[in-house]
Hints:
Strand order of the largest sheet: 1-2
Amino acid sequence: MFAATQADRLNLDISIGTWAILGAVILVMLAFDLLIYARGHVPSVRENAIWSIAWIGVALVFGAAFWAWQGSEAGSQYLAGYLLERSLSLDNIFVFAVILAYFAVPGQQVQAKVLAWGIALALLLRLVFILLGAALLDAFHITFYAFGALLLYTAYKLVRHDDAEIEPEHNPALKQLRKRVTMTEEYHGDRLFFKQAGRRVATPLLAVFVVVATTDLIFAVDSIPAIFAVTQEPFIVFAANAFALIGLRALYFLLVGLMDRFVYLTQGLSFILAFIGVKMLLIDIWHVPIWLSLAVIAGTLVLTAVLSLRVKPKAKTPA
């Protein structure tokens, strides 16, 4: 393996038991988020803000423990990976809003539940994607160049707004689901299935659930290669993805009404992806230090937020 690649590959001694512990922690977090958050009432803006901050705190506590356990290099890679995935997950919020509006999902509690289950399935699918990506990187060095080119193309599409139109009706998984499963047009609370004339049928909420999860996997095609430019350790990659996605629904309800204020978010994410794409293409020439990657990601996000907040919101057109 090339020297530049070895610098990012720490060869951590992560046992199956450690993976099991991480999996158990994630399951507990998912269950807590599903059973406690938005239970029996619609959370206020203040509650969503507290939940969002709390989940970030949990991710940072894990990072501090991981830093103390595996050292500063591994801890820095996790922190940079988490910050990267968390920033890219902001784009998911736009997509979630489009999907929920397209299916006219009623009520914040129902929306919160379908997002929770969708994110849980997305995590499982991402784990498969991460293990496959790690195997490809380990077996074929040219994969770095393929990932780098993919990220540059994605950055180009973002800045050109070529992927601005999200059309759930064209989702292949949704088309297959509708062919194979009998589905009603009406929602029945937060139920995925119910009995009609003695037969078990699905509600549209099942379709929303599938579209949320599979659409997130499409986003993973961009975000997973991006984090592999920060670290090639599957454990760190999955941990950063898990902590970035868990609690995303609280952040969704906090920011969905404000997303039009982040006018430079797309440009910021595009720059981050372009930087990481170039980093992967230069992997055999120059090893970008982890502190520089962290500084570029954090600096871009701060600059994007500051510039966006300086723009005056557009006045609403009277109805």
